[in-house]
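Q: Hi! Curious about what Cytochrome bc1 complex cytochrome c subunit looks like structurally. Here's the sequence.
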Amino acid sequence: MARHNSRRKSGRRSPLAAAALIGIGLLITGGAYAGASAAMAATSDSSVAASTLTVEDGQKLFQANCATCHGLDLQGTDSGPSLYGVGELAVHFQVSTGRMPLQAQGPQALQKPVQFTEEQTAAMAAYVQSVAPGPTYPDEDVLDGNGDVANGAELFRINCAMCHNVAGAGGALTEGKFAPNLHSTSALNMYAAMVTGPQNMPVFNDMNLSDDEKRDVISALLYMQNTESPGGFELGSLGPVSEGLFIWIFGIGTLIALTVWITAKSN
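A: Let's find out. The predicted structure is below.
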């Protein structure tokens, strides 16, 4: 009788061994991924901490970019006014909107692409505030947009609409100056403009508008920014000027074209 060979063939493995290998591979991969994620998070946290700028950094940025016009000690020069008393709020407004550094002398500073990051802007503002204190940032609830929208709209019409237009679309002033539109202005810069009075803007101190009333005005403007025009096309929100122009160009133009077509058809 022939003998059965009890030796297993070489290279043959148990199914349990394959499953174990797969499990070990998954554990190693998951551990490596978790370790890498933790390392990246730690690196990100350290980079954020390292990127926080100080007042000294703000001083260096100011001296490199602003001192030519405003003086090394903020005293002002023939090319730019003194910054004593303007405060960090005014610096934030001018720099965060791209108005400063000034591109060229003119009737007023124009908005242009912002040249500094938020941290750099905050550092320069903190430096100016440390040297010559002035208006500072408001409480967060002033900018939250949860004020009385109806009262804010009325206050805006009384105090601001003659320059900025009742819909905040801006308007022309004298000698090449203009009031900018407010359709993309941030709540903080709305407040800063009311408190610091940049360029042609009057200053609205607490005797003119309290912080609660400023909050209402900001809430009304934010509401207009976030609400579509109920009348359809806004046409620039410039009122009867753009509406009348639209009628003349398209309305009267359509009538003239129809008259010419009827005449040509009859002939």
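A: A fun detail: Residues 15-51 form the longest helix (37 residues).
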